[in-house]
Specification:
The chain is an alpha/beta fold and about 500 residues long. About 25% of the residues lie in helices and about 20% in strands. The strands form 4 sheets. Strands 3-14-15-16-18-17 form a 6-stranded mixed sheet, with helices on one face. Helix 1 runs parallel beside helix 3 and helix 3 crosses helix 4.
Length: about 500
């Protein structure tokens, strides 16, 4: 717009310019925008001061910012590899439950447990023969080995320890003498329903033990490694729907695996995420739970979880196993979560389940039985969950003490550890723990829930927001922290 057009526009609107304002017009660059401002203000006589004010106001308007998009420097190596997963459906109770609740189911269950454990213990080389309990009377003053399930444990009047064991046919007593310090110390680790190999001498149908052997796993095993520089991240006990769910911190984890933050190289290696139960807080799990929920609809709880899962890149596979807060039966073994709760984004398995990831054999179990083994053994507590996890591995059973937590008497014991896992992954106790036991990574993945009132009453201090990550090329486990400033001590 030139000067003549500008002045004509002013006159057409019934406005007039003072002589000083007319001279100032010569200095105005964007006359069209100034004219629009003058019209909007409704001037009649436009002075030099009025025009200067309009020009000054116009010059305050900032130029629009130009957004410069930079190329994302995150180039995850895991994206270059296809998934290498093997699921063992015959070891998962999903679609395999045959229990009818009849008395014979319990008989078959315990017999299955006994026979499978005996097959492991029978492989132990020894100088003395393994006999059945009903042969004891014919072996007086002989050294023998016995395999049986512990059905009672008590002290004698002389301070010796007596256990009563049974096999398929008979019952007998085994005595650990207080004078034999080694065997007496071992006997302190015996719990009810343990299936053990006792070696000793027979006196009048009673075995005086000289050695106690648990099924355990082989000693001579090195930790596994692979050529591919890939990693597995381990989670548990998110408790989505709880007022104490640490959504902000969990989103930090999700941002990190998308390449936002430090340690991008490590984030780019993650190919799998294993979640070991208590995905949501659930409904009606304990009295007055609704007071501690922010979401009181079970479908909405899982809906929020799946919304979070959508933030995980497609080149990462998420494996989900249930826990005692999830929407499946509480009794173990637990089937996988139903499809109407979790869509195809996740690979859903039961608890326990066996999964092979890049050749690493994983045994995934929520860990309900940790409470019972901790309360039964003097060397265990909730502070170091890897210790009771090792005790379960030594017994080759994920829930050896029957009755402390509900177990469905299936025709075979799905809780028996018939193979040697490269990784044993659990949760449940909201406490991170790690150990390498005879070549097996013992991982408890903690929680993403703040400290609960129940934990405060129990004096239990959780470790929220810490994610264990197994680097499969080196066999090393690192812990990545996504929470700051939390001190429950």
């Amino acid at each position: 717009m030139n000067e003549e057009e500008f002045i004509k526009g002013i006159l057409d609107k019934g406005m007039r310019l003072t002589p000083e304002a007319s001279k100032l017009i010569l200095e105005v660059k964007d006359k069209e925008k100034i004219l629009d401002n003058l019209i909007r203000e409704g001037f009649t006589i436009i002075t030099k001061e009025d025009l200067e004010s309009i020009i000054a106001e116009y010059e305050k308007i900032p130029e629009p910012e130009v957004e410069i998009k930079r190329k994302n420097s995150f180039e995850p190596i895991a994206k270059d590899y296809a998934f290498n997963i093997r699921v063992y459906p015959d070891k998962d109770i999903t679609n395999n439950s045959r229990c009818t609740g009849k008395p014979e189911d319990f008989v078959m269950y315990f017999r299955s447990r006994l026979l499978m454990t005996k097959s492991v213990l029978s492989e132990r080389i020894g100088e003395t023969p393994i006999i059945r309990i009903n042969e004891l009377k014919t072996r007086n003053n002989s050294d023998v080995r016995l395999i049986g399930m512990v059905i009672d444990k008590r002290d004698s009047q002389k301070g010796n320890l007596i256990v009563e064991i049974e096999d398929e046919q008979e019952v007998c007593l085994v005595i650990m003498m207080k004078s034999d310090e080694n065997v007496y110390a071992l006997a302190d680790q015996i719990v009810l329903d343990d299936i053990l190999l006792f070696e000793g001498r027979v006196y009048n149908g009673i075995l005086i033990a000289k050695e106690i052997i648990w099924p355990d796993i082989p000693i001579m095993r090195n930790k596994k490694t692979i050529e591919e520089d890939l990693a597995v991240a381990y989670l548990s006990d998110l408790h989505v729907g709880s007022k104490l769910f640490m959504e902000k911190e969990f989103n930090k984890f999700l941002d990190w695996i998308n390449g936002n933050g430090e340690d991008k190289e490590l984030a780019g290696k993650i190919k799998y995420i294993s979640i070991s139960g208590d995905i949501v807080d659930g409904i009606g799990i304990y009295p007055r739970q609704e007071d501690e929920l922010v979401v009181k609809d079970i479908y909405k709880q899982y809906g929020i979880f799946m919304d979070l899962m959508e933030k995980i890149p497609d080149y990462i596979k998420v494996i989900v196993s249930p826990g005692n807060h999830d929407a499946v039966r509480r009794a173990q073994p637990q089937p996988q979560l139903p499809k109407e709760l979790l869509n195809g984004k996740t690979l859903n398995v039961g608890s326990p389940s066996w999964i092979d990831l890049e050749g690493f054999k994983h045994l995934i179990y929520h860990g309900d039985s940790l409470d019972s083994i901790i309360s039964s053994l003097s060397n265990c507590d909730h502070t170091h969950p890897e210790v009771p996890m090792i005790e379960l591995l030594k017994r080759r059973n994920l829930s050896p003490i029957y009755g402390r937590n509900p177990i469905v008497p299936e025709k075979k014991d799905y809780l028996f550890i018939d193979q040697i896992p490269d990784v044993l992954h659990m949760g449940h106790v909201h406490k991170n723990g790690y150990s390498l036991y005879r070549g097996t990574h013992i991982i408890n993945s903690g929680t993403f829930q703040e400290r609960t009132n129940f934990q405060i009453k129990q004096g239990h201090i959780p470790t929220p927001g810490i994610v264990p990550i197994l680097c499969m090329k080196t066999g090393e486990v690192v812990h990545k922290k996504f929470v700051a400033g939390v001190n429950y001590g």
